[in-house]
Automatic annotation (TrEMBL):
<feature type="signal peptide">
    <location>
        <begin position="1"/>
        <end position="24"/>
    </location>
</feature>
<protein>
    <submittedName>
        <fullName>Cation efflux system protein CusF</fullName>
    </submittedName>
</protein>
<dbReference type="InterPro" id="IPR042230">
    <property type="entry name" value="CusF_sf"/>
</dbReference>
<dbReference type="Pfam" id="PF11604">
    <property type="entry name" value="CusF_Ec"/>
</dbReference>
<feature type="region of interest" description="Disordered">
    <location>
        <begin position="29"/>
        <end position="48"/>
    </location>
</feature>
<keyword id="KW-0732">Signal</keyword>
<dbReference type="InterPro" id="IPR021647">
    <property type="entry name" value="CusF_Ec"/>
</dbReference>
C-alpha cells in the first residue's frame, strides 16, 4: 500500500467533511428568513453579539467564532465561520479571545463590520 496516497485520501476526506459541515450550517441560517425581513428602508440591518474565537487566519480573512444566541436574528448558540468586511481587522485577534461583533447582512450573510476584543 502506498502510504502517501493513503494519507492524501484521509486529508481529502477530512476536508470534504469540514466543507459539508460549514455548508449545512450556512443553509441553516438561510432557512431562517425572520432576521432578514426586518430590513427597513435606507438603514442597513445591523446585529450585535459577543463570542469566543475558535479559529483565525488573518492573512486569508477567515474567522470562526462560537457565539451565544442572537435574538435579533433568532439564531441559536453555535460555532460558525464569519466573512469579514476588512480582513486587516483580524490582525492581533487570537484563538480564545472574547470578542464583540457588529454584523451586517449583505445577501443575508452575517458579515463582520466591526470586531473588538473584550477583556473579562
Ligand atoms: Cu451562527
Amino acid at each position: 500500500m502506498n502510504n502517501k496516497k493513503a494519507l492524501t485520501s484521509i486529508i481529502f476526506a477530512t476536508f470534504l467533511a469540514i466543507s459539508f459541515n460549514l455548508q449545512a450550517h450556512t443553509s441553516d441560517h438561510h432557512h431562517n428568513e425572520k432576521g432578514a425581513s426586518q430590513l427597513s428602508s435606507g438603514v442597513p440591518e445591523m446585529h450585535h453579539t459577543t463570542g469566543t474565537v475558535t479559529q483565525v487566519d488573518a492573512s486569508r480573512g477567515q474567522i470562526i467564532i462560537h457565539h451565544p444566541p442572537i435574538e435579533s436574528l433568532e439564531w441559536e448558540e453555535m460555532t460558525m465561520p464569519f466573512p469579514i468586511v476588512d480582513k486587516t481587522m483580524l490582525n492581533g485577534i487570537k484563538v480564545g479571545d472574547k470578542v464583540k461583533l457588529d454584523l451586517t447582512m449583505p445577501d443575508d450573510v452575517a458579515t463582520i463590520s466591526k470586531i473588538e476584543v473584550v477583556k473579562d
